[in-house]
Structures are given as C-alpha cells and as structure tokens.
Specification:
alpha+beta; about 40% helix; elongated
C-alpha cells in the first residue's frame, strides 16, 4: 500500500501510535476512526468516476500498477471521501514539506532524532515579503485529553429491568463498525456501527442495534449502556454474566453491571458472538 497519511493534530498523532500498538487485529476499523488525509497511489480500477474526471480535466496521464493518485479525507464514523478545499490546501503543503524532509533525511538520518518521545521535528512557516518560508523546529506534542463520554441513563427503564429475576445466561456483547457504505448519492457516506448481543450457550442473537456516529463518536458511545438495557428488556432477561472484548465496552457497562448485579468480564475470545457476526457480515455485505 503506497501512501502518505497525514494524521490531524494530537488526536491523529496519538491515534496513530495507538493503532500501531493495537496490532493487525484492530487496525482496519481503528484506522478509519483516526482523523487523517491520505495521498495514495492505486491501480486504475480502484479510482472512482470523479477521480478519473479530475485527472482527465487536468490533462495528466498515468500508466501501470500503483501509479494512479487518489486523495481522501478520513473522519471518524464516515467513509473515506474526496477532499474539501481546506483539506486540499493542507495536503499540498504536507506533500511539499514531506519531500523536503525526506530528501534531507536520506542524507542524514539524525534529522528526525529528538531528546524524548513526545518531541518531533515540525516544519513551521512564516511570511517574508508575502512568501511562505519554512523552517525546522523541534516541538513537544503532548497527548490529547481523554474524550468525555456523556452517558444518558433512563432510571425508570433500569428499575423495570431490575424486577426481572436474574437468569443463568452468559451473554457476549460486542460493538463494531459494519462494513457497509450508507448515504445518499452526492453526499459523504457513513459507516454504521452494530451493537450485538448473543447468548453464549445457544449462539442465539438476543439483540442487535444499528448506530451511527452522529453527532460524534463520543455521543454514540454514550448511548450504548441504554441500548443494552433496551435489548435486555426486549429479551426479558437479566444475565448472570456479560463478556465483552473491548476496554471501551468494559468501562461503559461497568455502572450497569453494578446496578443490575451481573458479572462483567473482558475476554479476547467471544466464540458465539463471532459466529453470529460472521453470519451477519456474509448476509449483508
């Protein structure tokens, strides 16, 4: 995969390091949630009609594998999309400065060395006679603050659920991006997310809910606990144990576990859920 990726701001930079630490098992979905711009070089058939129209209008010709340029902007929860004007201006500067640094780095690999892990070489512009002049600076980039997740809870619905006797069920729950492109023609498509609840013993799907990152990922995450309450209410059970895979779900459901008195556990393997998930993916994608 031949590309230059521009990770936007501290969120993008530290999102990149989190992505690297997560490993290949989470890389695809996580990569799509990091704010970034990409200039990639693709095969001709991987470009869309609009890409070909722009290339034709510019009078430029390309030939061969991994030779066709494609520019895309990535926003959390949305499908990679054509650049907007401000994104196009930014990536133009980035490509110019990447070439400048790359050529110098080839001659001197110490160019990118800094005194600590939070300091980086940064290219900084200033104007001289209305001309942008760029210079090297070593700057510290601190991690962004953890996002605040507003959690909406309906105490009345939770009290109704608490009246049900606790069952012996163990439920596996996961929350994941669904690989489907949704949206009206001419608008930026989005990826739906799915909340899935599966009975660990029978592999029966007890509940599923499609969600979107609107107005933000944090708002969507905050709605997960009550969505779980809805699904358990419809199924008519309070489980003995709930198993989740992600740290995010573990934290979001912990208050609910204390309120409904079920055992909440994080597990890398969710065999019944993965079987149901595979069935859904094959059916809908």
């Amino acid at each position: 995969y031949y590309a230059i990726a521009v990770y936007m701001g501290p969120e993008g930079l530290y999102g990149f390091w989190d992505l690297k630490a997560a490993g290949p098992s989470e890389s695809h979905e996580r990569a799509l949630e990091i704010p970034q711009l990409q200039a990639s070089f693709e095969n001709r058939n991987e470009l869309e009609k609009k890409d070909h129209e722009i290339i034709k209008r510019l009078g430029i010709k390309f030939r061969g594998r991994h030779a066709w340029p494609m520019f895309r902007g990535y926003r959390p929860g949305f499908f990679p999309w054509f650049l907007e004007a401000n994104e196009a201006r930014l990536i133009m500067y980035v490509l110019e400065q990447t070439l400048d640094v790359a050529l110098r780095y080839r001659e001197d690999e110490s160019l990118l060395e800094t005194s600590d892990e939070k300091s980086y070489l940064v290219r900084v512009p200033h104007k001289e006679d209305d001309i942008l002049v760029w210079e090297d600076r070593i700057m510290r980039v601190l991690p962004p603050e953890s996002p605040r997740i507003p959690i909406a809870m309906n105490t009345k619905e939770i009290k109704l659920l608490k009246r049900l006797p606790q069952s012996r069920h163990t439920i596996e729950i996961d929350f994941f991006m669904f690989p489907a492109k949704i949206g009206e023609e001419g608008t930026r498509p989005f990826y739906p997310y799915m909340l899935l609840l599966v009975d660990a013993q029978s592999c029966v799907i007890l509940g599923n809910e499609s969600m979107i990152a609107d107005p933000s990922l944090e708002a969507m995450w905050g709605s997960i606990p009550m969505n779980v309450v809805h699904q358990l209410s419809k199924a008519g059970i309070v489980p003995r144990k709930i198993k989740v895979r992600s740290e995010l779900l573990l934290q979001l459901l912990q208050p609910l576990a204390e309120e409904l008195r079920f055992n909440l556990k994080r597990s890398r393997t969710l065999p019944s859920l993965d079987s149901a998930k595979e069935f859904l993916l094959q059916r809908f994608t």
